[in-house]
Amino acid sequence: MLLQSDGRVWDKNPGQNCHRQVDKVVTMIDLDPADVTMYALRHSSIVRMLLQNVPIRLVASLHDTSVTMIERNYSKFITEHSDDISRRALLQHEPPSGENIVALAS
């Protein structure tokens, strides 16, 4: 998901190869590199995608993991927000329109 400054992709283990660059950026924004790691960024990315209803299979593929691992490790984060996610999925955000739509009298 992250590219090197010259546009090339990182090899199979970017966390081991770019940690110095990430540490520099984290330090520049006054955060502790011990807390803000590549793994923490990956974790945040997975949680954000799940909360945006990105299909779990796609989230797993983008983060080089399995659906089983996401369900095992992130079910807490999924279920904490299940009411909000369900409501967003059920509610119609745009009012219906069209010639065959008739408003009910209130």
Account of the protein in words:
With 106 residues, this protein is an all-alpha fold. The protein contains six helices and no strands. Helix 3 (38-51) packs across helix 5 (67-80).
What fraction, in percent, of the residue positions are helical?
Answer: 40-55%
The chain-level structural class is mainly alpha
Shape assignment: elongated
User: What share of residues are in beta strands?
Assistant: under 5%
| Helix-strand topology string | HHHHHH
- Biggest sheet descriptor: none
Q: What is the distance, rounded to the nearest whole angstrom, between the alpha carbons of the first and last residues? A: 51 Å
Determine the number of helices (DSSP H or I, runs of at least 4 residues). 6
- The whole-angstrom Rg is 20 Å
Low-confidence runs: none
Give the total of beta strands.
0
Provide mean pLDDT, rounded: 79
Q: Keywords, please?
A:
elongated; 106 residues
Gist?
The chain is mainly alpha-helical and 106 residues long. 55% of the residues lie in helices and 0% in strands. The protein has helices at residues 14-17, 19-28, 38-51, 56-62, 67-80, 82-90.
Topology, please?
Layout: H1 14-17, H2 19-28, H3 38-51, H4 56-62, H5 67-80, H6 82-90
Helix pairs in contact: 3-5
